[in-house]
Design goal:
The structure is a homodimer. Chain A has about 300 residues and is an all-alpha fold. The first copy, chain A, has helices spanning about 5-30, 35-45, 50-60, 65-90, 100-105, 110-130, 130-155, 165-190, 195-220, 225-240, 245-265, 275-285, 290-305; strands at about 95, 100. Chain A has one domain: Farnesyl Diphosphate Synthase. Helix content of chain A is about 80%, strand content about 0%. Chain A starts with 5 loop residues before the first helix and ends with a helix. The relative contact order of chain A is 0.11.
Chain lengths: ~300, ~300
């Protein structure tokens, strides 16, 4: 059962996701053909489009040009999809969204090269919209790559003591939401919102990855990658080996609330009801993977509003 | 024994290569640290720097700012080095320049992510020099990625009949020389040379890859990748299975001369003695891998000047 506050949000998110899905499919159908189209479609044809949705919601709240925002949402999602193709090689994952991963389906060779085609396209879309968009796209990509590198480093337990978990997920996951949010604000031309948008996106991305690692930790998911490993190290340092749900919940709330404070203080929080609810909603979606965590969190949130 | 005409050129090339080597090492030492520095150094610490050298020679011939050109040569070489890391994964090569390839030495995971760090850095260097430079960098990367994709497609003999060998090597190898040459001209601000520089670079890159595939074909090199496979198909269609050296030489001269005609017609050809000799010199360097081809070609060239 969904929280009643979320009804309108869900409708809105579906609408935005639908716009992005359609725009992406139209774009790649014009741009690629033959087997390359098939590969691109396999890589980008699916997904929650969260980064694109954040971009659209922010630009809409700030009354930016929605057509321009949609083109840039394509750029954001192409970049994100590309990163997943390489992630899956790195993590040796064989399945994503109930389908074989791209390298598993089409071979390592094509999976190594396809993200180059997608990211250069993504940056070119951004470039055509203006130099400031390209700059954000490039920064985002650079940060996310560094985050992915740290993620690999965190696979080795010998490296854990010197590492900063929050920095890792800020680079690996926060950066993509930060970039999407910044672009959403840039589209509107309202420069006074840019710093707030970046903070909103970064905090959202961190909260998102934090929740994902937490659920992976509780469910003992073995494919969580480096950040989940480092998370385990981090949480064990704080609360020991305990899998007591209220202890974990306390740890979770303590950390997640720091990010929500940042989101709350952002000028965007008051700008739109959607932007207010979206972060909480996203976290709850992740928590659905663990029933007891979900129930507790839902309770907390009902009192929070 | 070197041709006497090449003496000054070789001195010049060594000088330019030395400048680029030093600039790259200074740059990465400031930019990276720890194990990431080690990885970057492993990937970029070696190389002939041909693309960077072309960039410097052209900008020098057109009296462009040499400091700016050197920064952009770093950008070109970082991008090129990054592409080699992924090439080696794709071709499953275990050795490059007498060292283990990066994926072999540091593992697949780091070899998948490192090029993202290098290419985003390469594009950011270009961006800092001006919008026109990152535009060229981005186009180059996009073309080279498409070329690499075609190279993978050409691994499968079923695809050969419908493929265009020259288009493949134009994208895969020509693009990087074309981009370097264009940037060299852009640095000078002399817009009237840009189209000629692009043609010069593209023809040079095609001649270079053509020669490389030819030598691989004659020496029956098994690690030549898709373009060499397609080359074999192409040459066999023209002259059959014969390994008769004069037949092959004829085929080679016929094709390579088309590229040299383009180079000859370029305004750059008359602009500097170095730019005149460099293409011939590069091809001869490759031909050293096959003694009989080298001798024949040297003879032809001595009469050519």
């Amino acid at each position: 059962m969904e929280l009643p506050q979320f009804e309108y949000l869900i409708k809105k998110l579906d609408e935005k996701k639908g716009e992005i899905d359609k725009a992406i499919m139209d774009y790649i159908r014009k741009r690629y053909e033959g087997e390359l189209y098939e590969l691109v479609e396999y890589a980008v044809g699916d997904g929650k489009r969260l980064r694109g949705v954040v971009l659209l919601l922010i630009s809409e709240a700030l009354e930016g040009d929605q057509k321009k925002a949609l083109r840039l949402a394509i750029s954001a999602e192409l970049g994100h999809s590309a990163s997943l193709v390489h992630d899956d090689i790195i993590d040796r994952s064989v399945e994503r969204r109930r389908k074989p991963t791209l390298w598993k389906r089409y071979g390592l060779e094509k999976a190594v090269i396809l993200p180059h085609i997608l990211i250069s396209e993504s940056l070119d879309i951004a470039r055509r919209e203006g130099e400031e968009f390209f700059k954000v796209g490039l920064e985002t990509w650079s940060k996310a790559s560094m985050g992915e590198y740290l993620d690999i480093i965190a696979e080795d337990r010998n490296n854990w003591p010197g590492m900063d978990y929050r920095r890792l997920i800020a680079l690996k996951s926060g950066s993509l939401f930060e970039g999407a949010a910044e672009i959403g604000a840039l589209v509107s031309g309202k420069k006074e919102y840019i710093q707030d948008a970046k903070k909103y996106g970064m905090a959202l991305g961190i909260a998102y990855q934090f929740s994902d690692d937490l659920v992976g930790y509780i469910n003992s998911n073995e494919e969580g990658g480096g950040s989940q490993n480092l998370f385990s190290y981090y949480i064990k340092n704080e609360i020991g080996d305990s899998k007591d749900i209220s202890l974990i919940m306390g740890f979770f709330m303590f950390n997640i609330m720091k990010e929500f404070e940042i989101i709350r203080k952002s000028k965007l929080f008051e700008k739109s009801e959607y932007l207010k609810l979206f972060p909480i909603f996203s976290i709850l979606e992740i928590m659905k993977e663990n029933a007891s965590m979900y129930d507790i969190l839902k309770n907390v949130i009902e009192n929070y509003f």
